[in-house]
Each structure stands twice: as C-alpha cells, then as structure tokens.
Amino acid sequence: MARRSDWYDYESFPAYVPVAQRRANAQSAVSQLKKKGVVVEPVTIEGKLIANTFWGKAWCTHLESLSDFANRLGRGRSYVRSGAVVHLTLAAGRIAAKVQGSQLYEVEIKIAKLAPSRWAEIVAQCTGSIDSLVELLRGKLSESVMRAVTNAKTGLFPEPSAIELTCSCPDAAGLCKHLAAVLYGVGARLDARPELLFTLRGVEASELVHSGATASLSQAHGERAGARHTLALDALSDVFGIELESAPPARPSTPCVSAALPAKPKRSQKSGSERTPSRAAAPKASKAPAKKSAHGAQRSGRRALAEPKPKPKAKRRRPA
Predict the structure, then answer these.
(1) Residues 219 and 93 both lie in one domain
(2) Which of 42-51, 70-79, 181-190, 267-276 has the highest mean pLDDT?
(3) Which residues, other chains included, contact 269 with Cβ-Cβ below 8 Å and sequence gap of 6+?
(4) Which of 59, 166, 272, 315 could form a disulfide with 108 if both were Cys (CB 3.0 to 4.6 A apart)?
(5) Where are the beta strands (DSSP E) in the chain?
(6) pTM
(7) pLDDT (0 to 100) of residue 234
C-alpha cells in the first residue's frame, strides 16, 4: 500500500499564515493587480455570515449538504471571511478566481450546464407561481417553488459529479481550502447578483416568470374586458336599488346624402319584351282633391257653428 508521503512531500508545504497576515497580503495583492490594469472583483464579507439572502444561503446550504465536500469546507469559511478571495467571476459553466494564501493561487471551477430536460421539469413545477423577475431574484417564492429550485438532485444547484475543481496550490486533495473559499465566495456573490446562478447553469431566469403567464394572458384579458360592464351595472344596481339593463349597441350613423336623395332604380338585364314600362306609359295621377276624413269634416262644421252670422243691412227709404 502506498503511503501519502509517496504522493507528495509534506516539507514542500508553505508555513501557516495567520489570519491578520493573510488579510494584509490579500489587500496588497489587490493593489498590485489594479496597478497592472487587471479588473478585480474581490469578495468582501461583513460580519460572521457569509450569505444573507435567499439565493446565497441556499447555495451555501447546498454545499454543506454534499458529503464529498463537508470535511473540507471549514478552512474555506475562514479564508473567505478574511478576504483571501481577491477576485471572483462567474460565467456560463465556469468560475474563475484568485485566492491569497502563502502566495496568490489561481482557481478554476467548471460546472456542467443544466440539462434541458431537468430545466424543463423545473419550469413546469414553477408554472404560474412566479409573478415577476424581481420577485424571483429576491427569493420571494412559494414553498413549492423553493423546493423545486433548491432540490439537491433536481434543482438548480450542481451535484458533485457536475463540478470539476482546479487549483494551482500544491495540495493534492480533491477540495483544498482555496477551492472551498471560492465556493463559499460564490454564495456571497449571489447575495448581490442572484441572476449569476442562472448564468452559471446556462439557463434564462425569465423562462420561470413567463411560463404559464403567456398562455393565460389573452384569456384573462378577455374575461376582464367582458366583466367590466357587468361589474359597473351591478355596482349601480346596489347603490340605487334598481335593475339596470345593458345599453343597446349604438346604431350606425347614416350619411345625409342617402337620406336626401332616393336611390336610383337598377337597370334590368332582361330582354326588351320583359323590360318595365317607361315613365310615359305609367298612368297619370288623378288631380281630384283628396277627401276629407270624417274627423276633419266634423271639425270644420264646429267652426262654422261657432262663427256669428253677419247682420243684414237696413234699406234706405226714398222721400215722398
């Protein structure tokens, strides 16, 4: 059986660096990188808690639930709290970082993108439960959605088999303290930018919001539009204690020209023998005065009785 001393030499390990000295070295490393023109994004921890929001805490909880990492995470917590992670970036399927130990070490963590079938299951479980992207990123989710996205085997967080770890330090362990510090640093970074988790797994967070909402949008809009008039009438009926009928549809306005001018008769397409007679052949209308109705005659008779008859003129007598 091979001894561990055959794999690497313990004497090659650098001496232990106290926390205060490590913090000072980290600050010096950041200053030197900035002088070289390197854009650095250090992980800064304020207080004892590494993460304070839903997504940051969920990430750290997931790490601690993995038996492959549990024994090596303790040293990583002290490193990240001391500011040893001087640079950390997240991209699709990749985490790149610089960690200050006895010297500056390069860390790279590759994470497999989320399988499309697994992502489709998460989207299906969250359908209709998330109202906005802001609500999603703030972690204001229902219990069912929280279980769907944080499940260790079917959620958004990676399993050990999907994680590939690389560090430039001489530690041959699968998870050194520098790698552990970076993994905890991801949880701290998700506090400020939770959307990076979706970027890391290669999925779009907006798909969780729009799933189900688009399908029912037109139906909901039609129901609201049809209910507005009914709700208004019901409210008035309750106030005045009467039943109101819905207003009839407005009649289309007719143009003035069509009302003033009669429509011209259409010309017939029949043969000459079947054509309608001309205006000259039409019989003339009689000029006889129209008969008065009985009611009109009665009214004229009343007027005649009411008018006084004129007195006869007196005859002049001739002188004898």
Answers:
(1) no
(2) 181-190
(3) none
(4) 166
(5) 85-91, 94-100, 104-111, 163-167
(6) 0.62
(7) 52
Instruction: Assess if residue 88 is contained within a domain.
Output: yes
Q: Provide the domain count of the chain.
A: 2
Confidence at 173, pLDDT banded by 50, 70, 90: confident
Asked whether residue 104 falls in the same domain as residue 120, the answer is yes
User: Do 67 and 183 reside in the same domain of the chain?
Assistant: yes
Could you tell me the residue range of the domain that residue 94 belongs to? 13-211
CB-CB neighbours of 102 under 10 Å: 15
**Does the pLDDT at position 223 exceed 50?**
no
Report the range of poorest mean pLDDT among 11-15, 41-45, 90-94, 241-245. 241-245
* Residues 246 and 228: beta-carbon distance below 8 Å: no
Percentage with pLDDT > 70 across the chain: 60
The full DSSP string for 220-243 is: HHHHHHHHHHHHHHHHHHHHHTS-
Q: 225 and 184: one domain?
A: no
306 lies in some domain:
no
Q: At what angle do helices 54-65 and 177-192 cross, to 10 degrees?
A: 150
Same domain, 135 and 232: no
Inside any domain, residue 150 = yes
Q: What is the pLDDT of residue 101?
A: 86
Task: Tokens for 256, please give them.
Answer: 């003035």
DSSP-derived 3-state class of residue 171: coil
- CA–CA separation, 156 and 150 (whole Å): 6
Q: What is the pLDDT of residue 110?
A: 96
Question: Residue 201: inside a domain, yes or no?
Answer: yes
Question: b/e string for 190-199 if b means 16 or more Cβ within 10 A?
Answer: bbeebbbbbe
Backbone angles phi, psi at 233, to 5 degrees: -65, -40
Closest CA to 194 of 45, 58, 79, 42: 58
Same domain, 33 and 178: yes
Tally of CB atoms within 10 A around 61: 14
Do 237 and 181 fall into the same domain? no
* Separation CA 31–CA 38 (nearest Å): 10
Q: Cβ–Cβ contacts within 10 Å for residue 93, how many?
A: 18
